[in-house]
Amino acid sequence: MRHYIMYTYVIQGERFVKVMDFQKGRIIHASVTEWEEGRLYAELAMDLEGFKGKIAAGHFDYSPPKTNK
């Protein structure tokens, strides 16, 4: 597996995944919709498939720290 899920986040009801591709040294931003529609390259889709349940459950969700103002 060459991809590492950094975190996921939700914008206006749509979940996005931020993934590090260590082999090519790049960060990939993709929506779960793109993934489900088959618009991601095969290797990334296969790597994400193993974490599908955790992604849907919000295991990797990022929420910004709360600040006291």
Structure notes:
The protein has 69 residues and is of the alpha+beta class. The chain has one domain. Helices cover 28% and strands 33% of the residues. It contains three helices and three strands; from the N terminus they run βββααα. Strands 1-2-3 form a three-stranded antiparallel β-sheet. The model has no long low-confidence stretch (mean pLDDT 91).
Condensed summary:
The protein is of the alpha+beta class.
Domain module count = 1
Provide the residue-averaged pLDDT.
Answer: 91
How much β-strand is present in the residues? 25-35%
N- and C-termini, Cα separation: 43 Å
Largest sheet: 3 strands, antiparallel
Show unreliable segments: none
Notable characteristics:
3-stranded antiparallel sheet; single chain; 69 residues; alpha+beta; 28% helix
Blueprint of the fold:
Layout: E1 3-11, E2 14-21, E3 26-31, H1 32-36, H2 42-49, H3 52-57
Antiparallel strand pairs: 1-2, 2-3
